[in-house]
Amino acid sequence: MSEPKDLFPECVKGVIFDLDDTLVHSTVDYARFKRRIIERIALEGDDPSVYDPEEGIMQLIGKFRQRMMGSGRTSSEVDDLLDDFDEIMDDVEMERVKETKSVPGARELLQMLRDRGLKIGVLTRGCEMYATKALELTDMLRLVDHIECRNSDVPPKPSPESYRRLVKRLGLAPEETLFVGDHHLDAMCARKTGVRFVGVRTGDLTEQELREAGGVEVFDSVADMIPWLSGLLRTSD
């Protein structure tokens, strides 16, 4: 493992977490997400065969925006259509939210950080209603200081704007935080913001993929971060 002083210098005062497959096991049906988005695209007269369901949501929506702008739609018209996509995504996220379970050790980790006086933020591409409900159901909402979601007034991650807005709400600077997540988007967001990224393998990525994406450290899950962070915090005291 890396030296504690390199990963957790004295200036670190908060930890930012991704939500799905980092703190909670995701219940979101992403395949259904994409099917409904492509169906909505077809209603606009665009060719659904152009859109590959294996692509990510961001790629599908980005392609749609580009094609609509190229077809002569105004930015305002395209934004209205994208608002419809947001409503679809909100609906799918909420369909099974009541089934949400925490990743083992997640609540204990957040409690340990709070007991040590650190700020805790959640940065997610989920909607606010979904994120709030998922954290409430898993008894973690009380441990989180602020949540930054997809339907904010700044672009969502991997845009650094979302990260900067969240840490500002925490009363911190980006360099005073670590970002913990399971996905390429999390690593990309950390890189664009210039903060340390710690990967967890409760998503789909391997340790090698998380390290190649920029992880300064990688764990099987947030549960394994408890003794590690406890040691780093003792070093920082």
Question: What do you see in this structure?
Answer:
The longest helix has 21 residues, at 75-95. 47% of the residues lie in helices and 13% in strands. Residues 1-5 have low confidence and may be disordered. It is built from 10 helices and 8 strands.
Q: What would you say about this model in short?
A:
By secondary structure, the protein is an alpha/beta fold. It is built from ten helices and eight strands.
- Total beta strand runs: 8
Per the principal axes of the C-alpha atoms, what is the gross shape?
elongated
At the fourth CATH level, what is the homologous superfamily of the largest domain? HAD superfamily/HAD-like
Residue share in helix? 40-55%
| Tally of distinct domains | 2
The CATH topology of the largest domain: Rossmann fold
**Strand order of the main beta sheet, please?**
5-4-1-6-7-8
Quaternary status: single chain
Number of helical stretches of at least 4 residues: 10
* CATH architecture assignment name of the largest domain: 3-Layer(aba) Sandwich
Round the mean pLDDT to the nearest integer and report it.
Answer: 91
Distance between the termini: 20 Å
The radius of gyration is: 18 Å
H/E element sequence: HEEHHHEHEHEHEHEHEH
Beta strand %: 5-15%
* Poorly predicted sequence stretches spanning 5 or more consecutive residues: 1-5
CATH class designation of the largest domain: Alpha Beta
